[in-house]
Amino acid sequence: MEQWDITFAKDGTVDYSAAGGTKGSYRDLAKWMRGDGSTSGSMSGFSNWQHMLSLPIVTLTGDSAQARTDFFATHRGKKENDFNVHYNASGAFHDEFVRTPEGWRIQSRRLEVYFGDPLQIAKMG
């Protein structure tokens, strides 16, 4: 959580409801993605993933800023969990930033999903 804590403002919020995720604090998002030790997170079904981000479009206004960053993300399902798929998604992060004494932090992040496609992986041999 250390990296999340230095990325988000202390009261930072997220809205990942477009992907079936949480709407609330960034710590709630981390729990939804990673799990909490007693429950699995939403990413636990994947063995690998890569998110490719565009350059952000930023509007700066004094000590606040807004940004939109498009993304393409690919996820590899775990074969051992009978989840032998690639899941590809495209969308954007809509961020509100605030300047703090420690530097710029994300005040809020909203996920927008343009599309998402699960692709079955063919069995070889």
UniProtKB/TrEMBL annotation:
Residue ranges of every copy of the SnoaL-like domain listed in the record: 2-110
For this protein, the record's SUPFAM superfamilies field holds: NTF2-like
Report the superkingdom from the record.
Answer: Bacteria
Name of this protein: SnoaL-like domain-containing protein
The record ties this protein, via InterPro entries, to: NTF2-like_dom_sf, SnoaL-like
